Amino acid sequence: MKKLIIAKNIGFCFGVKRAVETAEKLLETISSLYTIGNIVHNPLVIEKLKKRGLVICNSIEEIKGKYFIVRSHGLSKKEIEKLKKENKKIFDMTCPFVKRIHYLVENWNKKGHYVIIIGNKNHPEVLGIKGYGAKVEVLEDKEDVEKIKNRSYNKILIVGQTTLNFKKYLEVIENIMKKISASEILVLNTICKITEEREKEAMKIAQDVDAVLVLGGKESSNTKKLYKVCKKICKNTFYIEKFLDLNKIHYDRFKSIGIVSGTSTPYFFIDEVVKYFKKNKYKEVL
Ligand code: SF4
Is 106 a residue of the active site? Predict the structure, then answer.
């Protein structure tokens, strides 16, 4: 019997689900809804939403309509204020985990803490968080920390991008401590457990199967990470963004296939792939 193992943690995470469902609902009654950057890093979902009236802009200046949705990554305070000033009707779908970081950065910065964000400098979530404090610095990794000069502060707050690997977060913090000193260093755990749980489950599946299919958009950073961790364990790991990508795989040689997905992969796509393998005599095992 050919086996199909489907991850339990699969499909949209709750932050992405909330943003996409809100956009869908709004587009039932309004003809155009604006956003900055892709609302979700998945071309299949974006294509559907665009057909229904979602307009993706690169900056506030490009927004021509009244209705605006903030994606789960959030936006900087300055951008939100600018949108309000222009009388836009804002639907704020910033993930509550990201919103919490906005609040922490703003408040501790006001209390006099110098803020260090560990994360990808160009990621929209990090850019948004950065905009909530005046004295803020972003450090990406250990190599980035090595480049900075030794310095000291009175008080420091350290937060991390939600999708960071917790081990990596701690490693970077350890390196920061060697370079930057302060009488008070407040380190907060701002990592979202959802992506970490998916990584753990994907690694376990990759050990038990002949091939792994990682379903998700090529631009999705957490899908890319899943692909990387699975590929390390199982050389037959494939990135499947769209149904046609399955044509590239000669899966007949695999007795067991694992299916995992990033947090921006829609269920309709996962279903389509699962049905296809079931039709081809793979049986789902728990
Ligand atoms: S991965 Fe976590 S932090 Fe990011 S949108 Fe989903 S629930 Fe929110």
Answer: no
- Ligand 1 atom at shortest distance from the alpha carbon of 73: 5
Residue 15 Cβ contacting ligand 1 at under 6 Å? yes
Q: pTM of the prediction? A: 0.91
Average pLDDT in the 152-162 region? 96
- Which residue has its alpha carbon closest to ligand 1 atom 2? 192
Which CATH architecture is the domain 97-187 placed in? 3-Layer(aba) Sandwich (3.40)
The closest alpha carbon to 135, from 112, 152, 161, 154, belongs to: 112
CA dist., res. 6 & res. 57, Å (int) = 36
pLDDT of residue 238: 97
pLDDT for the residue 267: 96
Q: In whole angstroms, what is the distance from residue 181 CA to residue 119 CA?
A: 20
Does domain 2-11+193-285 sit in CATH 3.40.1010.20? yes
Q: Answer whether 14-94 and 97-187 agree in fold.
A: no
The pLDDT of 59-79, averaged and rounded, is: 95
Which whole number is the average pLDDT over 143-167? 93
For domain 14-94, give the fold: Rossmann fold (3.40.50)
Given a cut of 90, whether residue 200 has pLDDT beyond it is yes
CA of residue 97 to ligand 1 center, whole Å: 7
Does the CA dihedral 196-198-201-205 come out positive or negative? negative
pLDDT at 1 over 90: no
